[in-house]
Amino acid sequence: MAYSIANLANVKSKKCGHILNVVSSDALENGFIVFAGDNVTGESELRSAVKPVTAKLTTDSAYLVYSDEILYDESTYKKKQLGAFNIAANTPTKAYELNVNDEIEVSYDGLTLLSTDAVVGNYVIAANNSYKMTESGTLTGTEVFAGVITAIKTVGTLQYVGSDGQVANQYKMVTIRIIKN
Description:
There is one protein chain. The protein is mostly beta strands. Helices cover 2% and strands 43% of the residues. Strands 1-7-12-11-9-10-8 form a seven-stranded mixed beta sheet, with no helix packed on it. Strands 2-4-3-5-6 form a five-stranded mixed barrel. The longest helix is centred in the first third of the chain and has 4 residues, at 54-57. It is globular, with a radius of gyration of 16 Å.
C-alpha cells in the first residue's frame, strides 16, 4: 500500500506561524488535512487532530499534517521508499497552519481526484469525513479551506532491485496554492 507524501514547498508557518503537535486515534499520512481539537488530557502542548466534519468545514482553519519521514524498517528496498511512510495511530505528529499563498505539494495518494489525473486550475477542498483533500471543479463560497492546483509533476526515479525487478520509486505530485483558510 502506498501512502501519501507531501512537501512543504513554500509554507509560511515553517518560519513563523502555528505548528501544532497533534495526535489522532486514526493513522495519518503526510498531506492530510486536520482541524485542531482540544488539548489531550494531561498535556499542555498536544492537541487532538479532528477529522474534517461538516461543522468544522465552515468555521475552523485547516492544518496540514507533516512529519519527517523516518523509516525504521529497512529490510527491503520497498520499505525504504517515501510511499511506505505513515504516522501510526496515537502517535504525536506536527500539523502546519496554512496561509493564503502558501504552496504545498501532495502526492496523488493524499488526494481524492475527480478522475485518474488531477487537472491544473481545479480546486482542492477539505471534504466531510475524510482527511484527504478533494479535487473540485468549482467552489461554492462556503469552504473554509481551498487551494488551486497550479502544477503536476512526477518526482523520483525507477529502480531495479534484485528479485523484485523494477520498483517504481516515482510519485505524481500536485502543487497546490492555498487561496482560502
